[in-house]
Design a protein that fits this description.
InterPro entries: HAD-like_sf, HAD-SF_hydro_IA, HAD_sf, Pyr-5-nucltdase. This protein is α/β, with parallel strands linked by helices. The protein folds into two domains: 12-24 and 97-283, HAD superfamily/HAD-like (Rossmann fold, 3-Layer(aba) Sandwich), CATH 3.40.50; 26-90, DNA polymerase, domain 1, CATH 1.10.150.450. The protein has 14 helices and six strands. The structure holds magnesium ion.
Length: 302
């Protein structure tokens, strides 16, 4: 990719699913209802305690499920995903997005979905949006957790590994066979975007602009990428060029480049200390299976 937009070439894209590749207010509202219903009907948590616990778990552990696991609730993963996602009226909420498809298809870089949600949810959404075939793979709950378990990673006492833990970002990079310095990451969550930046990825907040989020770039929608990141469509230059000043109006703030250079100097161990326990640090020395053995990365189409 021509570096006109961001000052460095890109070789891969990691893209969140929910509220990033589509935006529908009903989806998160229903998921929240289903989560709270699960906590009451299946885990026996009193109704009056649930909103506070949801907030506490989401804030401290990344997802409610991760917080529940850290607090010794015995959760059947398949049952959880079936309850909080698979009951969604998908066909009423999502429809084919031809403009999104055309835009993504025209970006000649490997693209990976990177979501905390489960594989079935991701695949249903991608199929309904009409973009499932455009991704090299889907990095989802199952794929991240398979690798986290293999390495024995634990975060704040929870075995659930998910964004915004920098370890989850690093696992996703490894699964995609991508380097942080040449990967762009798109997500609607400011804290996920912050984790991406901490890992050295060019990180784009999707869904809000003017949020002073600390993201490298903010766009209201993925549909706005043509205007905001024109370099995604540029021919790869034959020689490195000097990084240009940030284009006006696309969310690049002063000090971003310097900050990113500083972040890039952070070692894996430092990133791990930011987001995980010592068990995680020990586990992160375990290499991923080599290319060609990436069974943990769920193909976009099966
Ligand atoms: Mg999201």
């Amino acid at each position: 990719m021509d570096p006109d937009t961001i000052g460095r070439p890109l070789k891969a894209l990691l893209i969140d699913l929910d509220d990033t590749l589509y935006q529908d207010d009903n989806m998160p509202r229903l998921v929240k209802e289903f989560i709270q219903d699960y906590m009451h009907t299946k885990l026996g948590i009193p109704q009056e305690e649930i909103p506070h616990k949801c907030y506490e778990f989401y804030s401290n552990f990344g997802t409610t499920m991760a917080g529940l696991a850290a607090n010794n609730f015995d959760i059947d993963e398949d049952d959880w995903h079936a309850h909080v996602h698979h009951r969604l009226p998908y066909t009423k909420l999502l429809q084919r997005d031809e403009a999104l498809r055309d835009m993504l298809a025209s970006i000649k870089l490997p693209k990976y979905v990177f979501t905390n949600a489960d594989r079935k949810h991701a695949h249903i959404c991608l199929e309904l949006l009409g973009i499932a075939d455009l991704f090299e793979g889907v990095i989802c709950y199952e794929s991240v957790m398979a690798e986290a378990r293999r390495r024995g990673l634990v975060h704040k006492g929870s075995p659930i590994m998910c964004k915004p833990n920098p370890l989850a970002v690093k696992l996703a990079l490894e699964m995609a066979g991508a380097d942080a310095a040449t990967t762009a990451f798109f997500d609607d969550s400011t804290r996920n975007v912050a984790a991406g930046r901490a890992c050295g990825l060019y990180s784009v907040l999707v869904g809000r602009t003017g949020a002073d989020s600390g993201a490298d770039l903010e766009v209201a929608s993925m549909h706005d990428l043509r205007g905001a990141m024109p370099g995604l469509w540029a021919e790869r230059p034959h020689a490195a060029r000097a990084a240009p000043a940030a284009a006006p109006g696309i969310g690049l703030g002063p000090g971003v480049a310097a900050g990113r250079r500083e972040l890039r100097r952070q070692s894996t161990a430092e990133l791990i200390r930011q987001g995980a326990d010592e068990e995680a640090e020990q586990g992160f020395g375990v290499p991923l299976p080599l290319s060609g053995e990436r069974g943990i990365l769920v193909p976009a189409q099966e």
